[in-house]
Amino acid sequence: MNRKDNEDRYRQTGERQHIQEHLANERTFLSWIRTSVAILAFGFVIEKFSAYLHFLEYQDSMFSTPTRGVADYLGVAFSIMSGLVVILAAARYLQTRSQIDQGTYRPSLTADLLLAATLLLVTVLVVIYLLRTPLPR
After folding, report:
1. Quick check: 16 pLDDT over 70?
2. Are 125 and 74 a contacting pair, CB within 8 Å?
3. Which of 83, 69, 88, 41 is nearest to 134 (CA)?
């Protein structure tokens, strides 16, 4: 092999590596989006199931109108958290993309910790809700 062939192979390997880095960045972004969709869906299910339980309680007693409970607010909170995760994911994706293009990529512990804190908050809220919700008779 001559020198030209080696340079071409090196350039192709570098371009392949660059493409792989961008694909990995996109996979990470999509994972964040899936996490956001799961949080949103969970909040939706909690809120709608709570509304259904309120409706059954109202039908059973016929004394009071259904009121908003903790689950309703929890569902809204999860929806807001879902939106925040999307914003964080998009910001992180664009930052990483720019860093890959410039060759200055640095892992961000902050973004990862924010996502972990968000999921921990979701977990704590669910546990509190489950502990405060009476079991059906």
Report:
1. yes
2. yes
3. 69
